[in-house]
């Protein structure tokens, strides 16, 4: 790619290179942004085959299969290379044309591919068979010397995984489990979820320990907050004991007090002085 960019003026080549670096960096984690960077690079250097190829992969990763196929074809015309043939066939699948993808698997270009490319083409052809509802044919398509080999290559895990998945679709669960296990053995880079598929077949359920810890912490915090609120409410409330009503006080009079009052009343009557 660097060699191809040398055909451009230095400043332009640097600008294109920066955008291509961002495409590579974001392709897996943020396909949309990777696609946007690829469009910038394409506007700057549409006559560079490596730029067209990068733009094709960015469009492919973003699900724009028709656009990706156009870019791959342009790159192939510029270079004459057949290495993009499998991904071009997969674009046909993405566009809903599995028959076309299957036809491409029988074209002479496949013979020009290296071993990795031929395995990739086999994977695409098997996928096309499954798209067409030919699950048993997909299983047969994947059976090959590369699948039977004990040697581990960069594509071995994906090939074994695809075979296991195809076996599972036709109801051969025991065989599928064995091949998922073989895929896991070869999957040194973690490119498949073979371990999850194995666990699923074995009925093993994983729990997220971190999520459980967070839930427990949140629950404890909620309980602590409720307790603090109750305590504060108790402190702010004055509780008074009920007071019984006092018995009415009834004055008591002695006989002497009654005689004195009577004498006073008589003295106050008219003619009392007489």
Overview of the molecule:
By secondary structure, the chain is mainly α. The protein has a domain at 1-81: Serine Threonine Protein Phosphatase 5, Tetratricopeptide repeat. The protein contains 15 helices and no strands. The protein has helices at 2-5, 10-26, 31-44, 49-61, 65-79, 85-94, 98-104, 115-131, 135-142, 145-148, 156-169, 173-186, 194-202, 209-235, 255-268. The longest helix has 27 residues, at 209-235. It is flat and about 75 Å long. It starts with a helix and ends in a 6-residue tail after the last helix.
Condensed summary:
By secondary structure, this protein is mostly helical. The chain is built from 15 helices and no strands. The longest helix has 27 residues, at 209-235.
Keywords:
Serine Threonine Protein Phosphatase 5, Tetratricopeptide repeat; 274 residues; mainly alpha
């Amino acid at each position: 790619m660097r060699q191809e960019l040398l055909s451009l003026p230095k400043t332009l080549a640097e600008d294109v290179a920066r955008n291509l670096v961002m495409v590579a960096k974001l392709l897996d984690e943020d396909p949309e942004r990777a696609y946007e960077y690829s469009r910038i690079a394409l506007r700057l250097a549409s006559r560079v085959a490596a730029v067209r190829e990068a733009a094709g992969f960015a469009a492919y990763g973003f699900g724009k299969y028709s656009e990706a196929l156009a870019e791959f074809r342009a790159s192939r015309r510029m270079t004459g290379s057949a290495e993009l043939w499998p991904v071009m066939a997969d674009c046909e699948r993405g566009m809903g044309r599995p028959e076309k993808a299957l036809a491409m698997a029988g074209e002479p270009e496949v013979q020009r591919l290296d071993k990795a490319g031929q395995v990739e083409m086999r994977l695409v052809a098997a996928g096309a068979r499954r798209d067409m509802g030919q699950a048993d044919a997909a299983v047969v398509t994947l059976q090959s010397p590369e699948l039977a080999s004990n040697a581990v290559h960069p594509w071995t895990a994906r090939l074994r995984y695809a075979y296991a998945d195809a076996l599972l679709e036709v109801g051969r669960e025991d065989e599928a489990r064995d091949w998922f296990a073989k895929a896991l053995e070869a999957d040194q880079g973690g490119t498949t979820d073979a371990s999850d598929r194995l666990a699923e077949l074995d009925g093993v359920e994983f729990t997220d320990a971190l999520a459980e810890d967070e839930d427990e912490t949140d629950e404890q915090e909620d309980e602590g907050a409720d307790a603090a609120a109750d305590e504060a409410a108790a402190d702010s409330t004055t509780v008074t004991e009920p007071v019984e009503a006092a018995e009415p006080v009834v004055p008591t009079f002695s006989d002497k007090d009654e005689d004195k009052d009577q004498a006073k009343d008589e003295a106050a009557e008219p003619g009392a002085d007489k």
